[in-house]
């Protein structure tokens, strides 16, 4: 805060008048309440002189607020609300406009990429992304954006931090590295997973998403399973699922009759 020069002259004059009034014992004795009112008036004028009231800026901010709210996706609202319930830290001047995942799979026609809230362990990989609205007060500085993916068992399967230079306005941030999906032996379970996004240690988004199991892996295991000798296949089936004795005998008779 600083005193604006155009207000200096009248503040000095007002201060002198107030000073002359309050140092007079006769005046204070008869007009104590008036003296206190003059002091309060001077303090209020002094405080006002430090305030940088910019009507155009206030009107511009008031007009842009509804437009900004319309830009926030349903996923971002949900993720922001969950983050507020989980953390006491906040990131002032930063608004989460969108959050989600970009999955991709190579095919004969090229690379198939899609923005999604549900992934399949058949896909090649997935990257998280966010869209931020950065206020001018938070612009022109570096920040650390942290992405985390946690599976349904609470195991952290992906952590990536990226140093980002903030610019005012809308920014799209896509993680530099992906989480491999197909063939990733660490991903043992499908279900409801979480994507966590933090900026400088403040949690700004917590989005739930669905991970479905790999059908290709199941088909491969089934094909390998069907190539086993009959005795081994029967042994594996007995271990994998409850099979009645009648079913086992029926299957043996069918093989003998072929």
Give the key terms:
single chain; 258 residues; alpha+beta; 5-stranded antiparallel sheet; 5-stranded mixed sheet; 32% strand; rod-shaped
SSE arrangement:
Layout: H1 8-22, H2 25-30, H3 32-50, H4 55-71, H5 74-86, E1 94-107, E2 110-116, E3 118-120, E4 125-134, E5 141-150, E6 156-166, E7 169-174, E8 179-180, E9 191-199, E10 202-212, H6 215-226, H7 230-240, H8 245-257
Parallel strand pairs: 3-10
Antiparallel strand pairs: 1-2, 1-4, 4-7, 4-8, 5-6, 5-9, 9-10
Helix pairs in contact: 1-3
Briefly say what this structure is.
The chain contains eight helices and ten strands. It has 258 residues and is an alpha+beta fold. The longest helix is centred in the N-terminal third of the chain and has 19 residues, at 32-50.
Q: What would your notes on this structure say?
A:
The protein is of the alpha+beta class and 258 residues long. It is 41% helix and 32% strand. It is built from eight helices and ten strands. It has helices spanning 8-22, 25-30, 32-50, 55-71, 74-86, 215-226, 230-240, 245-257; strands at 94-107, 110-116, 118-120, 125-134, 141-150, 156-166, 169-174, 179-180, 191-199, 202-212. Strands 1, 2, 4, 7 and 8 form a five-stranded antiparallel sheet that branches. A five-stranded mixed sheet has the order 3-10-9-5-6. Strand 5 (141-150) and strand 6 (156-166) form a beta hairpin. Helix 1 (8-22) runs antiparallel to helix 3 (32-50). It is rod-shaped. The chain starts with 7 loop residues before the first helix and ends with a helix. The model is unreliable at 234-245 (pLDDT under 50).
């Amino acid at each position: 805060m600083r005193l604006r020069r155009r207000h200096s002259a009248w503040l000095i004059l007002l201060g002198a008048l107030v000073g002359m009034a309050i140092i007079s014992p006769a005046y204070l004795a008869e007009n104590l309440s008036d003296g206190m009112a003059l002091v309060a008036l001077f303090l209020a004028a002094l405080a006002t002189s430090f305030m940088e009231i910019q009507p155009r800026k206030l009107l511009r901010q008031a007009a842009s607020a509804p437009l900004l709210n319309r830009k926030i996706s349903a996923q971002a609202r949900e993720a922001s609300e969950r983050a507020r319930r989980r953390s006491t830290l906040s990131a002032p001047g930063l608004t989460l406009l969108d959050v989600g995942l970009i999955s991709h799979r190579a095919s004969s026609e090229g690379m198939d990429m899609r923005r999604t809230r549900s992934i399949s362990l058949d896909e090649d990989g997935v990257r998280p992304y966010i869209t931020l609205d950065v206020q001018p007060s938070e612009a022109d500085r570096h920040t650390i954006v942290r992405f985390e993916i946690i599976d349904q068992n609470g195991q952290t399967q992906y952590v990536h931090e990226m140093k980002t230079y903030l610019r005012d306005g809308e920014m799209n941030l896509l993680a530099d590295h992906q989480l491999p999906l197909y063939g990733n032996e660490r991903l043992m379970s499908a279900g409801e997973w979480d994507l966590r996004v933090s900026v400088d240690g403040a949690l700004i988004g917590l989005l739930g998403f669905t991970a479905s199991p790999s059908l290709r892996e199941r088909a491969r295991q089934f094909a390998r399973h069907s190539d086993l000798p009959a005795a081994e296949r029967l042994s594996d089936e007995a271990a994998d699922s409850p099979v009645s004795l009648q079913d086992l005998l029926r299957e043996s008779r069918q093989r003998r009759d072929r």
